[in-house]
Amino acid sequence: METTPDNWRDEAGHAYELAGRKDSLIAGVIANCHPEEPGFEKYLESIQHPKLVGLRRICHVEPDEFSRQPQFIENVRHLRLTFDLCFLARQLPIAAELVRECPDVQFILDHCGVPDIANGALDPWREHLRQLSRLPNVACKISGVLAYCKPGQATTAVVRPYVEHCLECFGWDRVVWGSDWPVCNLTTRLRQWVATTHEIVQHADETNQKKLFHENAKQIYRLK
């Protein structure tokens, strides 16, 4: 969930306030940003904070050419923080273009690349995801998949092929678990997503499960 672009500074400030509380469990904040705008550097300066660990720009609500703008690419290329890839399944080749243009940036693919689970579409998502995973500076966030199911069909059996394909492509060192809360409530509850994930990876060794659920996130986002 996020605010409108006009309120992104306030949104980041609110997140920092929550993260600064003594009883807070927030280790880092991923803030929205405007790489397509000329004043990008000043915007980044205005939201700097010790808790800021990454940036994101939702591209799947924009035209396909959005992330291909020279200004967008140039601003992302010089980031020293992670950048979330928020693209639709059909846009994964476009996401790969951005990654290739910015080889020194750590990217995190959001929500398993937004596969069309409601319609049971595995292809061409599977091949596009595999191609993206071959780029070493991309990790995959295992999240969002239950929200993409049809109501009443958000089950382990339905999402297992998608989650397992992500794990196969990216391996245990380049995946991070995400709750997708509160969006996950569209089709189920957070408790079910936690149970579903544990069921899918129950036969993996404990070391790899720890990587998925927290160790990789600590490393990728450089959390203290």
Describe this structure in words.
With 224 residues, the protein is an alpha/beta fold. It has a single domain, classed as TIM Barrel (Alpha-Beta Barrel), CATH 3.20.20.140. 39% of the residues lie in helices and 12% in strands. It is built from 8 helices and 6 strands. It has helices at 8-19, 40-46, 70-77, 92-101, 125-133, 156-170, 190-200, 206-220; strands spanning 29-32, 52-58, 82-86, 107-109, 138-142, 175-177.
List the helices and strands and how they pair.
Layout: H1 8-19, E1 29-32, H2 40-46, E2 52-58, H3 70-77, E3 82-86, H4 92-101, E4 107-109, H5 125-133, E5 138-142, H6 156-170, E6 175-177, H7 190-200, H8 206-220
Parallel strand pairs: 1-2, 2-3, 3-4, 4-5, 5-6
Helix pairs in contact: 4-5, 5-6, 6-7
Q: What is the number of independent domains?
A: 1
Shape: globular
What number is the mean pLDDT? 94
Helical stretch count? Answer: 8
Q: Could you state the CATH homologous superfamily?
A: Metal-dependent hydrolases
Say what the CATH topology is. TIM Barrel
CATH class: Alpha Beta
Helix content: 25-40%
Reading the helices and strands in chain order gives HEHEHEHEHEHEHH
Enumerate the spans where pLDDT stays under 50 for 5 or more consecutive residues: none
Please state how the strands of the largest beta sheet are arranged side by side.
1-2-3-4-5-6
Quantity of strands, as a count: 6
Tell me the distance between the termini. 25 Å
Structural class category: alpha/beta
Biggest β-sheet strands, sense, barrel:
6 strands, parallel
